[in-house]
Amino acid sequence: AEISEDYNKYKTPDRDSKPNNKKKGEDDQDDAPVTVTTVSGSAPVYIGIATAGIAIIAIGGILVKRYV
């Protein structure tokens, strides 16, 4: 990002850069790196999913044995 406008109360221009000229190497350049991450879960969530999966398989097995 580059500073596109500057102002001071004495109306003196910046001596080493011009606003909004997109010139590399001036001290009006700045960046702000951002890292976006996601939460992948926690142990209780994984335990709950595993328990539910095992329960579904067990109930399915019991029903197949009983009715087939």
Task: Provide the fold topology.
Layout: H1 43-67
Helix vs. strand class: mainly alpha
Largest sheet: none
Number of strands: 0
Uncertain parts: none
SS field, number of helical segments: 1
Number of domains: 2
Query: Roughly how many Å is the radius of gyration?
Result: 31 Å
Brief summary of the model shown:
With 68 residues, this protein is an all-alpha fold.
Please supply descriptive tags for the structure shown above:
68 residues, mainly alpha
Overview of the molecule:
The mean pLDDT is 83. The protein is rod-shaped. The protein has 2 domains: 33 residues, no CATH class; 32 residues. The protein contains 1 helix and no strands. The protein is mainly alpha-helical.
